[in-house]
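Sample log: Fla cluster protein FlaF.
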Amino acid sequence: MGFGVSGSTAIIFLGVLIATGTLYTTVSDTTEMLNDAEDSNSEHLLERRNTGINVTSVTYSNNSGTYPMDIRVKNTGTLTLSANDTSVLVNNEYQQPSGSTRTVNGTSGTDIWAPNETLLIELTVDNEPKRVKIVTENGVTDSNSTLEEV
């Protein structure tokens, strides 16, 4: 064999070696990203399993066309939740958190909603409420369509 054949073989071998290294790096990074996504999904599912809420009571009054409401929600799960990240839907309409007052077991200004504590949400809506739905930050919901007018 001459130098041309040996040189060509070395160049081809070097190209295959570089391509294999690049392929290994790509496959390794992709596998790592998939494993991270699986771990994140498992953590999210565990949080959902450990979250439980119960809308214990909803009261409202008719105040000349506006309806002040008190919504009491008990944290029945084992996970501490965020009071400010809890969403409220009244008659299937999202209610802005800035339009409500939230207290946990009588303490206002706290965001920590621990297990077995009750969150009180006070808000005013324009239409007579028929149904209330509460959604936690990780998507667990409970609703109450038995509203009491006081």
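Observation: The radius of gyration is 28 Å.
Observation: The first helix runs from residue 3 to 49.
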